[in-house]
Automatic annotation (TrEMBL):
Domain RCK N-terminal: 149-269
Organism superkingdom: Bacteria
GO BP: any one term: potassium ion transport
Name this protein carries in UniProt: Potassium transporter Kef
Coarse class of the protein's main subcellular location: membrane
GO cellular component: plasma membrane
Key word Transmembrane helix present: yes
Tagged with keyword Transmembrane helix: yes
Classification via Gene3D superfamilies: 1.10.287.70, NAD(P)-binding Rossmann-like Domain
Amino acid sequence: MAGWARFGPVGCRAVTDGEPRADFSLVGILRIPQVQTSPWSSLLRRVLLAVALLVVSALVVYWGRAGYHDIAGDDLSFLDCFYYAAVSLSTTGYGDISPVSPTARLVNILIITPLRVIFLILLVGTTLSVLTERSRQAFKIQRWRRTVRNHTVVVGYGTKGRAAVDAVLGDGAERSGIVVVDSDAGALRAANNAGLVTVHGSATKSDVLRLAGVEHAASVVVATNRDDTAVLVTLTARELNATASIVVAIREVENTHLLRQSGANSVVVSSETAGRLLGIATTTPTVVEMMEDLLTPEAGFAIAERAVGDNEIGSSPRDLGDIALGVVRDGVLTRVGDPAVGSLRAADRVLYIRYTGR
């Protein structure tokens, strides 16, 4: 999608097609989730507020009724005052009741007229509600862009993208710390309904990834439907952020080296992985069941990573209370059975099996 917004030099404006755009213009492209309220409750609140304004106006007129003239010459009752308030706030103004004393006219200027304006705002509340919503969204966008740091950007909210989001949430991440980038409006609606920040556009464009805050992201998950798209997204994300952990899902194993050269830290071959699980399931289906359990962090067992404890430094990973699978040293994973592991060091991280309960 051409011409999506990108950060300007000071991060407070966006640029599209060479023209600067304010954060307000990003509403509909970048969307911050909010708590949805029932339209009926919103309508009820507006009706109650309109009635309250009418009652307040009627009480004000009744309090100063001596300064009003009725064309019929009768003293004003509370019903007459309520009638005057209704026709005055609605700007109907029949003229049969009118303020004649200086005090009554001053009250109309200082009280009745402002109430009339508020009442008119309520009458066109639907349009103003949309404008107010856009203003709130623009404010949220501005605030979010200033504060977003160390978040996760998920490119593609299909089956793989949704599963990745569930796994990240299962590891304890906050929904506000996940940004979904997709060009499909239906997928973005689903992501927004799930409480995730969404960006509408093609992630192959640096402008869109900047809008998602990739420069400040801790990790990027690329779950596109095409391998060539995944390569372009990975190249663009790595150019914008040299330190983020980029994880990519592809269909064909021969494209793995392309993703590695493009800057991906981890490459998952979806078709090959699924094929292996299918083959294993023909003879040992319980192995597949356990694999799925390990990949589901919210229940049962899960593969996790942690720092080495002070009392574990110098010991063998096989002597730990946890079931250790490997040791991450200087960013490189070494299996427990490898003699190169030796004893644990202070800067090491242990890959182990964690029991999360059911």
